[in-house]
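Hi R.,

Here's the chain you asked about this morning:
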Amino acid sequence: MTEKAGSREKVAIVTLGCEKNLVDSDMMAHLIDEKGYELVDNPEEATVVIVNTCGFIDAAKEESVNKILDMAELKESGKLKSLVVAGCLTQRYKEDILDEIPEVDGIVGTGDFMSITGIIEESLEGKRPIYVGNPIFTYEEVVKRKVKTGTYSAYLKIAEGCDNACTFCSIPIMRGGFRSRTIESIVEEARHLAEQGIVELSLIAQDSTNYGTDIYDGKHMLPELLNRLAEVEGIEWLRLHYAYPGFFTDELIDVFANNAKVCKYVDMPLQHSEDHILKKMRRPGRQRDSRELVAKIRSQVPDVALRTSLIVGFPGETEEDFERLCEFVKDVKFDRLGVFTYSNEDDTAATRLPDHVDEETKEKRANILMEIQREIAGERNGRFVGRELDVLIERYEGRNDIYVGRTQYDAPEIDGEVFVSGYQGELGKIVKVKITHSYEYDLAGEVV
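And the predicted structure, written out as tokens:
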């Protein structure tokens, strides 16, 4: 297909799963845009649809398959000529997808998405391209991404893959071993995003606090990286996700305490409180270590917001284990908490463990834990009433002339928002807001 012919095709990218997939979709969007195709948001307007899938847990796999089938129907009712499936599901189940969904015209795995324009061309020519090889991709060769207009916050991958081999996790199968990017590569991408109007960067990896150890002689380089990114003009907030407790160094705590651009927000996925469960999960750290670390961070970084994620119903988790987990949550009082029920994943070690917990019990435990957290979140949010906080204004609600934004204590899409009255400026600005009301997860206030 010629460049001119390609420009007539309209391409929509449907992204499912985690924020790491969003980054991959942005990179594909940049390549598609450079090639001359027209990017559209609505799949019903597209002649080519790319579904970037998740294959992490059963619910995500089911959502991915359903979305692929939904998009396949557009071949009958819409303009769709080519349906391409990308991401983690293809990396793990390429044969199943090809055999069971004949409407799929091409597939690409997690290590080959840089070939997306060639895949589109081949699929439009009637071929059925399969680009699923080694999942290893370094992100060194490409730093440009195309973010949607009106976006002021973006995720930034600092590493890919994982070496921790947690027994419940299939990430190494889909994404390969742990691979840090160089500081120079990350800073260059940050500059490119800032030029597109991004003011907040959320740093992500499977294990962020281990950043740099594989390429900088075993040194934990996350503090250096944060300080370098803080120098990028236009970037106002830096947010850290997936910080393992085992590598949360004193130097890193100092950066949180003293660098004004680093959000006072720590996302530390602990997964459980009980040592024998953590051992079965092959998670680093112990309950006592986690409590001590949380206390240390809070003492040195006042007002810090702490987020964690927990898994209930892991094989061998007893009622007594769960009760102690509930007490742990009550004692620590996390600002933000995500709860997941254990999911059996193909080819992971946890599937072979004895004493699996039934689904009904898992769901019951998850609901109990979230109810406990609901009260804690409301209590923690209440401390902001009467204070002035910086808020990133992200959208106009329209009703009652309300704008909506976030504080540094809330990550995009997963945490709470601030409903702001009295604002007259542009979107994408950080403004002072006096908080007048607090709710379980959200806040409301007036521009100062």
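The first helix runs from residue 3 to 6.

Let me know if you need anything else.
M.
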